[in-house]
Specification:
Blueprint lengths: L6 H17 L5 H14 L10 H11 L1 E6 L10 E2 L12 E5 L6
Antiparallel strand pairs: 1-2, 1-3
Length: 105
């Protein structure tokens, strides 16, 4: 697996994602960026880490992650999931983070 310029940050964020999935907590791009900034700050890295949109897209590509909109209320991991071009324009139950190739739908 390829890593970015800061593999420690990448793997810490990926582990956070896995923890959130286990809890069934919806994850959004904003929550990923916020958590990445917190993790970076906790590592006391020099400089300010922006967690830009570009960085986030590259991170998701490196780890094979896509955000999808869940279409169910109960146990959203087992509900059918649809991918939308613009998820901001549809009513949301929550955002679920799925790894590419996850066939448990």
């Amino acid at each position: 697996m390829r890593t970015g310029q800061d593999p420690e940050l990448d793997f810490a964020l990926y582990n956070w994602i896995l923890e959130q999935q286990k809890k069934g907590t919806p994850i959004s791009n904003k929550s990923l960026q916020d958590e990445a900034r917190l993790i970076s700050k906790s590592f006391n890295k020099n400089g300010v880490f922006q967690a830009s949109e570009g960085w986030l897209e590259k991170f998701k590509r490196r780890f094979g992650i896509k955000l999808r909109v869940a279409t169910g209320i109960d146990n959203i991991r087992n509900e059918k999931v649809k991918e939308y071009e613009n998820p901001d324009k549809i009513p949301k139950v929550g955002i679920v983070l799925l790894r590419v190739g996850d066939r448990g739908l």
